[in-house]
Amino acid sequence: MTLLAMLVAVLIVLAYVNIPMPMGLSITFNMIPVAIAAMAMGLPGGIIIGGAFGLISFLQCYGIFGVSGMGVALVTANPGFGFACLMFIQRFVSRVLVGVLAALVYRGISRTKAPLYVRGLATGFAAALFNTIFFMTLLVLLFSQTAYMQNAMAGRSVLAYLVASVGVNAVVEMIVAAVVTGAAGVALKKARLI
Q1: 0.70 exceeded by the pTM?
Q2: Which branch of life, at top level (predicted)?
Q3: For the chain, which domains are there?
């Protein structure tokens, strides 16, 4: 419970720490606590902290726990309940899936003789990769017909938009998440939490 509370607190702090990028996206490191929870507590930890990440991300669309520029723009354009439900699916469900898959990646790689740092590296990398894949896939599937997304895509194909909008974000997030989660795994082992 203490570790879960600490990771939620870290998520709240990280909600205010992001690097804005073009097209309303930003570089964020909130998937790191999800990966750490997946390592330390397995599937339940990944689901709980992934859900907390998703809930915070959803609330940012309404200016709570910081602001998601893209989320606010989408909600402002269509503030209805049905649209809010779609935003919840995109923000919350995708992040719960990140927690589930990060836990499964850690469980799978733990069956090998890979050192703990490498297991953490793979888990952090996977969490960032899955976060990007699920978030952007649901963004395109659920909101590509909105005026905001049509403007952001500027006549480009979906693939061209995705590469242009997340190319730098995804690479930076994956590298940082891998390195930090690997180091956190070693620290968790020394603290006897893994």
Answers
A1: yes
A2: Bacteria
A3: 2-190 (1.10.1760.20)
